[in-house]
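Checklist before submission:
- one chain only
- standard amino acids only
- sequence pasted in full

Submission:
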Amino acid sequence: MRPTTVDALIIENEKIVLIKRGTEPFRGKWALPGGFVDSGETAEGACVREAKEETGLEVKVEKLVGVFSEPGRDPERGTIAVAYFCSMGGGELKGGDDAQKAEWFPLEELPELAFDHKKIIEKLEK
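Returned file contents:
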């Protein structure tokens, strides 16, 4: 069975929140905030929790962006990701949990991203 993860697309004023990964795979690369769905937790609940843990931001899930299940998207576990567009509700942007840092990036000037996160962002923009 393939594990399920969530990714939060937190966007305001043509900028998106990305985290610098502190763990493998892709340690040191930029990525969407997110992580594993825990037992007994909804995907939406996991998205809100992971966003808070990794960015310090309180978010509200607004809509499903998509489900991403390409077998090679995660080189270690072959995870299935559920991505959500989220609105900000408060908090202070700072890296936490397994994120080295969290920053706003203009959508037009994204760094190289881990996993298939560029593809996820592009799907939202369509």
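Reviewer check: The mean pLDDT is 94.
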